[in-house]
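Quick review question:
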């Protein structure tokens, strides 16, 4: 149950001084009894307002019936107790600024809202809900040596009903749990599920930072969703947007008649590219509003982590701005020192209050120390450089790939500077960028072989994994947020083959410790052949630095068959193929490189060598037969 704090000077002072990390327990709408009378206490922060009233179902939306009073302390908080108001009623705040204009605002701390296009907040008292994920919550592991494979999805278009309308969290939960678990993922990441007015923003222009969007149901429905996935052994991450907010009149924009949640100077407080406002990270109340939002999801909804959107836009005052359009910091630099302090505070609080939860930064620059304890304190950072380089390589006609050979190996130069996540997100398959399989050159067969190779390299290289929905079965069309995924294509072997390849990659990644325990260690990868640009062949070993287990990876990234290709290996013996992207079950030719013994001849600086038959556009995973290999054949994955 949500805890309610007394509206006293002590707690208001703590909020004003950034000592209250759950301000939603103080502000917003709280069902309670006061002097023996049942009703709702409303409280809001509006320091520049000259008058505030609460309007709603309980007073016929009459702004004269329930004016709010200044609270003690002079910190700009207003409150009112409305007898007879109750759970389920809608409301807004009528805020009059110093210019005399009155605007009806949604509650920044509302935990439920009306379904768009309606915009009112809803008085919400926690309804009975019994969590069944105690074992999951107690066993969450924050270690960066664990496998972490994430399926990014958009609830509004993963699956819709027969009328092409949104499905409820409760209906989606078992379908998503069965499908994603069957694919071998460890987590799902949900695109914007916080309340937002415009479907086309995909949830990245938020008006309700404390409210699960009503598109899919109630707060308790969302709890059911998380609980169901936890019982299936899947973690739940959310996309979270503390970098900017929309200009919609009902939201945070100019909340009390002027800048409040946003910086006053538009050179800091307005994003010209996105037509949004930038949070003022120098105001304690704003910082606590955001920290409280993060904790709301992690503590009350048992969410396992947050992917923080657009971190670079927060870190740099000159982000997407020309000379003269931005304000330097006090030292004359381009870094937003207040945003940096915010991230440090945010991550410290999360790791203290939500053990086992992770925080991931979508950060596209070379800002130092994003995932360092002494830096910003994130757990992981998206490897945007790896993503751009690798996609650029695979988009090339194979004839020209030898001229871009280093795009695959360059990640090795910096991969240990941060804890990286290899992410291929929704951003890469919209706005005429084509789907992943659509990016690949050649005919339909070559495109699928290219996609299997791309995924094979993504899963083979060090770093945690993320892939956007639909790409796991070679969706040919771009993602459309207004339609379900084309699930019918799984009836076709060429699509099912890519799907099964991804399933088996996940299985290998999770069961072979060499594939994940060294993700963030220098000795987690050793290159054997990284310079054969003429053949576009790459060979390396992945290592578990603790146990010494290792796996050999060899890729041939041209549509040319290479028979008897020599690859050096450190140990003699029989090598078994764990996975081969050219397998007939995956839609390949089925060249079938079988198990083979080493030759006692030096190659690539190694004492032994293998002579491999490398299929066109393929990735091979091999292992010494003396070790226990991962058992594949994980069974069919149910379609939704």
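Suggested answer, residue by residue:
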């Amino acid at each position: 149950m949500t805890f309610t704090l007394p509206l006293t000077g002590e707690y208001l002072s703590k909020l004003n001084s950034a000592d209250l990390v759950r301000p939603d327990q103080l502000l917003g709408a709280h069902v309670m009894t006061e002097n023996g009378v049942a009703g709702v206490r409303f409280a809001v922060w509006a320091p520049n307002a000259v008058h505030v009233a609460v309007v709603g179902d309980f007073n016929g939306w009459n702004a004269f019936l329930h004016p709010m009073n200044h609270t003690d302390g002079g910190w700009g908080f207003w409150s009112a107790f409305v007898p007879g108001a109750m759970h389920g009623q809608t409301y807004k705040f009528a805020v009059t600024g110093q210019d005399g204009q009155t605007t009806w605002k949604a509650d920044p701390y509302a935990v439920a809202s009306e379904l768009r296009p309606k915009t009112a907040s809803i008085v919400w008292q926690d309804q009975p809900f019994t969590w069944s994920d105690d074992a999951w919550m107690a066993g969450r592991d924050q270690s960066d040596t664990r496998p972490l494979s994430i399926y990014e999805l958009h609830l509004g278009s993963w699956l819709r009903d027969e009328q092409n309308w949104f499905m409820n969290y409760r209906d989606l939960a078992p379908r998503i749990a069965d499908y994603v678990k069957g694919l071998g993922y460890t987590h799902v990441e949900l695109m914007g599920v916080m309340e937002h007015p415009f479907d086309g923003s995909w949830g990245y222009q938020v008006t309700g930072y404390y409210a699960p969007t009503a598109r899919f149901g109630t707060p308790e429905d969302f709890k059911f969703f998380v609980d169901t996935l936890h019982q299936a052994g899947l973690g739940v991450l959310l996309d979270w947007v503390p970098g900017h907010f929309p200009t919609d009149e009902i939201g945070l924009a100019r909340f009390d008649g002027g800048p409040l949640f946003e910086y006053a100077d538009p050179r800091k407080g307005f994003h010209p590219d996105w037509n949004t406002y930038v949070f003022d990270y120098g105001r304690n109340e704003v910082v606590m509003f955001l920290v409280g939002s993060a904790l709301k999801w992690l503590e009350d909804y048992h969410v396992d982590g947050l992917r923080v959107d657009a971190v670079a836009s927060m870190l740099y005052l000159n982000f997407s701005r020309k000379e003269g359009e931005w304000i330097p910091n006090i030292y004359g630099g381009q870094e937003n020192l207040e945003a940096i302090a915010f991230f440090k505070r945010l991550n410290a609080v999360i790791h203290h209050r939500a053990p086992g939860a992770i925080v991931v930064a979508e950060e596209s620059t070379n800002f130092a120390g994003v995932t360092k304890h002494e830096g910003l304190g994130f757990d992981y950072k998206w490897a945007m450089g790896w993503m751009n380089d690798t996609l650029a390589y695979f988009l090339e006609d194979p004839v020209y790939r030898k001229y871009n050979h280093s795009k695959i190996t360059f990640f090795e130069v910096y991969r240990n500077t941060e804890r990286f996540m290899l992410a291929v997100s929704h951003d890469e398959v919209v706005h005429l960028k084509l789907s992943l399989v659509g990016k690949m050159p050649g005919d339909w067969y070559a495109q699928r072989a290219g996609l299997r190779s791309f995924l094979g390299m993504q899963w083979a290289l060090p770093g945690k994994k993320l892939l956007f929905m639909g790409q796991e079965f070679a969706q040919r069309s771009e993602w459309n947020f207004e339609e379900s995924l084309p699930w019918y294509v799984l009836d076709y072997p060429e699509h099912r083959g890519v799907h099964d390849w991804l399933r088996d990659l996940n299985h290998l990644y999770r069961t072979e410790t060499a594939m994940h325990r060294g993700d963030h260690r220098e000795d987690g990868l050793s290159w054997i052949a990284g310079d054969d640009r003429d053949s576009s062949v790459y060979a390396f070993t992945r290592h578990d630095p603790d146990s010494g287990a290792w796996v050999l990876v060899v890729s041939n990234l041209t549509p040319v068959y290479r028979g008897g290709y020599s690859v050096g290996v450190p140990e003699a013996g029989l090598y078994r193929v764990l996975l081969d992207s050219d397998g007939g079950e995956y839609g390949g030719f089925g060249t079938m490189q079988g198990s083979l013994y080493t030759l006692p001849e030096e190659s690539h600086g190694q004492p032994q060598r293998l002579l491999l038959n490398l299929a066109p556009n393929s990735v091979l995973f091999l292992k010494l037969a003396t070790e226990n290999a991962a058992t594949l054949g994980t069974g069919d994955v149910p379609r939704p």
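Why it works: Confidence is low (pLDDT under 50) at residues 628-634. The CA atoms of residues 189 and 218 lie 19 Å apart.
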